[in-house]
Amino acid sequence: MIDVLLSLQDSEPDYYTDEVIRGMAIVMLTAGTDTTASTMEWPLSLLLNNPEALKKAQIEIDTHIGESSRLLDDSDLAQLPYLHGIINETLQMCPVGPFLVPHESSDECIIGDFRVPRGTMLLVNLWAIQNNAKLWEDPNEFKPVRFIEFKGQQEGFRLTLFGNGRRRCPGENLAVHVVGLALGSLVQCFEWERISE
Ligand code: HEM
Q1: I want to staple 94 with a disulfide (CB 3.0 to 4.6 A). Which of 42, 83, 168, 194 is the partner?
Q2: 107 in helix, strand or coil?
Q3: Closest Cα to atom 27, ligand 1: which residue?
């Protein structure tokens, strides 16, 4: 990451001063660590409570990797739709930013029946959207399979794990890869079970 930031400095040294680069590194570290870490904890908890889903994930990985003893790597992730479904389902049930981050209207606008004055702080209740039984069948049940056929943005904004628009999370791609790789490796390498009820 630091190398990428420093290469910006090479291209436009007057704009990307040391201070700007330092700020960008801090933003990325603060916005990218806790979010990714807690997105790792929840699927493990959900899988331990849904052993049949854990088994399916193991079978998907073992079938894809085959008999070889190699570890899962980045290039395998695109071939593991169920694992990806587990990540989406986790972020749907337990979004790390249940209200996204606060936004402020730069101008007066109308949203639905509401007039929103300029300078209003706006919180999006993502948790309520993603757990709404009118939008999702059995929203409180852990069903990663629902995302296998999911068409993303074509299905509207009912899944907005990383926000939307200009302030959408720029770390989405990185986060999905890191979580997929770490979670997939834990599922591939260990037998997980609860130690009690
Ligand atoms: C699973 C992990 C992550 C989740 C669920 C997540 C989610 C989000 C959400 C919901 C927002 C607010 C978007 C909005 O208000 O519309 C956001 C913003 C942001 N995220 Fe992430 N994020 C994750 C990982 C990362 C990583 C790894 C990075 C960087 C390395 C990152 C960098 C940022 C930054 C810089 C913003 C602010 C964007 C702006 O205001 O223009 N995030 N993220």
Answers
A1: 42
A2: coil
A3: 32
* Whole-prediction pTM: 0.88
Residues in contact with ligand 1 (CB, 6 Å cut-off): 27-28, 31-32, 35-36, 39, 91, 96-97, 100-101, 161-164, 167-171, 174-175, 179
pLDDT the model gives residue 107: 96
Torsion angle defined by CA atoms of residues 138, 141, 144 and 150, in that order, rounded to the nearest 10 degrees: 20
- Whether residue 170 contacts residue 40, with contact meaning beta carbons closer than 8 Å, is answered with no
ipTM, interface predicted TM-score of the complex: 0.98
Side chain identity at residue 197, one-letter code = E
Whole-angstrom Cα distance, residue 187 to residue 86?
A: 12
Cα 134 to the center of its chain, rounded Å: 23
Q: Are 106 and 169 in contact (CB under 8 A)?
A: no
DSSP secondary structure letter of residue 101: S
Q: Which helix (H) or strand (E) holds 121?
A: strand 121-122
